[in-house]
C-alpha cells in the first residue's frame, strides 16, 4: 500500500523584475495514514505555497502530488481538508452555519448537516453555541469552529497552516492536546505547518525541516518522545524533547535574537 499523500519533486517559482525566483525546489516527502507530519522552517521558506500546491489551489511548475495512489496534481482532492492560517469564519453566519458550510456545498440535507454539527459541537465541548456569531466567540473557540468545519466533511488528510499561531500558550496547549486526541481516534493523517520548533516536536511523528531561498527540505527527523499521551505538557516534559529541539534548532541555524 502506498502513502496517504506523496509529493514528488515539487518545484515552484515566481517571475520577478530580476528574473524568476525559485520559491520551492524539488520537495519530496510523504505522509502515512494515521501519521502526524510537520514542516518547520523560517517565514518565507514556502510552507504556505506548498500547501496551496497540495490542495490544488496552485499548480507546481514541476512535480506531482499523489493522494492515496492517485495523482491529483493541480486538482482539489475531496480526501484533503484545509484549515487555513487565519480562522476565516463568515461573520454573518452563526456557528452552526459556519460548521456546516462544507456539507452544504456537498449537497447534504440541512437536517442531516445540523445533526452532524450538533455532534461536532459536542465533541469540541461547544454545546449551546450553535446560534452564536463568530464575533461573540473567543479566539480559541473561533479556531475550534474552523477545525470543526474541516472535520465535519471527514477528510482523510488534514492540512493545518500555523493554525494555533495567534493563541495564548495555555489555550494553544489545550487545543493541541485535543487535536492529537481526536486525530488519533479518527485515524487521520495530519500535515502541519509551523515555524515553532517546540510545537513541531511535541505534536509530530515526523518532522521535515526546511530552509528558505529556495525552500528546500534539509532534514527529516523521526520523533519518538516515548509516551503515548496526547497531553502536550506530558509530551513536552519527555526527557528526549531537548535532543530533538536542539537537532532542529541547529538545522535551521537561527542566531539568537539580541534584544
Ligand atoms: P511561508 O508560508 O513559509 O512563510 P510562503 O509560501 O507564504 O512562505 O511564501 C514563500 C515566498 O514566496 C515568499 O518570499 C513570498 O513573498 C513569495 N510568494 C508567495 N506568493 C507569491 C506570489 N503570488 N507571487 C510572488 N511571490 C510570492
Ligand atoms: Mg505561511
Could you walk me through the main structural features you see in this protein, from its secondary elements to its overall organization?
The chain is α/β, with parallel strands linked by helices. It contains nine helices and ten strands. Helix 7 (197-203) crosses helix 9. The protein folds into two domains: 1-79 and 155-163 and 189-259, Rossmann fold; 85-154, no CATH class. Helices cover 33% and strands 25% of the residues. The protein has a six-stranded mixed β-sheet with strand order 6-7-8-3-9-10, with helices on both faces. A four-stranded antiparallel β-sheet has the order 2-1-4-5, with helices on one face. Magnesium ion binds at residues 47-48, 161.
Instruction: Report the CATH topology name of the largest domain.
Output: Rossmann fold
What string gives the helices and strands in order?
Answer: EEEHEEEHHHHEHEHEEHH
The CATH class of the largest domain is identified as Alpha Beta
Unreliable residue stretches = none
Q: Mind summarizing the main beta sheet?
A: 6 strands, mixed
Number of helices: 9
Oligomer: single chain
Number of E strands: 10
The distinct bound ligands, ions and cofactors come out as: adenosine-5'-diphosphate, magnesium ion
How much helix is in the residues? 25-40%
- What does the radius of gyration come to? 19 Å
Shape: globular
CATH architecture of the largest domain: 3-Layer(aba) Sandwich
CATH homology superfamily of the largest domain: P-loop containing nucleotide triphosphate hydrolases
Q: How many domains in all?
A: 2
Main sheet: strand order? 6-7-8-3-9-10
Percent strand equals 25-35%
- What structural class do you assign from the helix and strand content? alpha/beta
* Mean pLDDT over the residues: 91
Q: Termini separation (Å)?
A: 51 Å
